[in-house]
């Protein structure tokens, strides 16, 4: 059995933009192709990050520390007419999910957890279909999609995946709200710990003075 770290997923906002940019600029050329469908240069990535409209879309992140985002999931709410039909039926509300995880953090369930959080958020916001688009060679993304039970449409080396979602219920609302609260608390505690370490350094005391159990280093 894999020994995965505890993962906290936080909804991102304007103040996270610089950390999102660092995350995306850290992706290799092949990862950029898998994530964006093309090897985007740094300037295009910067435009993409600066162009994210937090009032319309929802972005989730997994922080390893206060400064380091190791996973980002972007949920963009779409016009269903813009999408290829799967089975003739049309959805009322559809959202596209794009995700990336920093290479050292892969295969630790971060991508799966971000996907699960996106499905929960869609349900709670009356979105009935989650959509992904990726290359047919993208094994980890297909694995996430298949585990979730997505309907997969392969064409010319590309994949469209659709997941029909149940309506919200009290459990889905409670679960998302609890996840967000725990993640925000973890993030705030990490920041607080960083302030304490900085303060100890100023006093000439080493970081070792802080008990390791208080550094929340085993959570990401
Ligand atoms: C796709 C991506 C987000 C997956 O993130 P991740 O955190 O490594 O995913 P997980 O750890 O949750 O793994 C998901 C599943 O894929 C499997 N998997 C991961 N890497 C794999 C690989 N290289 N080959 C085959 N299966 C793989 C895992 O075993 C897991 O399956 P399991 O739960 O049955 O064990 C990550 O690989 C990535 O950022 N890739 C570049 C960008 C990209 O491709 N984005 C998707 C298109 S939008």
UniProtKB/TrEMBL annotation:
PROSITE patterns listed in its UniProt record: GNAT
InterPro entries with a match to the protein in the record: Acyl_CoA_acyltransferase, GNAT_dom
GO MF terms listed in the record are: acyltransferase activity, transferring groups other than amino-acyl groups
Where does the record place the N-acetyltransferase domain?
Answer: 7-169
Q: What is this protein called?
A: N-acetyltransferase domain-containing protein
Task: Tell me what organism the protein belongs to.
Answer: Oxalobacter paraformigenes
């Amino acid at each position: 059995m894999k020994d995965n770290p505890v993962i906290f997923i936080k909804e991102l906002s304007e103040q996270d933009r610089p950390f999102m940019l660092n995350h995306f600029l850290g992706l290799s050329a092949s990862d950029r192709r898998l994530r964006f469908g093309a090897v985007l240069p740094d300037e295009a990535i910067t435009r993409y990050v600066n162009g994210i409209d937090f009032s319309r879309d929802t972005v989730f992140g997994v922080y390893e520390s206060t400064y380091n985002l190791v996973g980002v999931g972007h949920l963009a709410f779409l016009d269903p007419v813009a999408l290829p039909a799967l089975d003739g039926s049309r959805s009322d509300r559809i959202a596209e999910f794009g995700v990336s995880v920093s290479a050292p953090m892969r295969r630790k369930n971060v991508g799966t957890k971000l996907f699960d959080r996106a499905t929960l958020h869609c349900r709670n916001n009356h979105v009935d279909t989650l959509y992904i688009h990726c290359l047919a060679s993208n094994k980890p993304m297909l694995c996430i999609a298949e585990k979730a039970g997505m309907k997969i449409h392969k064409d010319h080396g590309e994949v469209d995946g659709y997941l029909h979602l149940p309506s919200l219920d009290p459990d889905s609302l409670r679960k998302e709200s609890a996840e967000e609260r725990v993640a925000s608390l973890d993030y705030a505690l990490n920041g607080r710990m960083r302030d304490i370490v900085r303060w100890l350094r100023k006093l000439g005391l080493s970081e070792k003075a802080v008990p390791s159990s208080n550094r929340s280093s085993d959570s990401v």
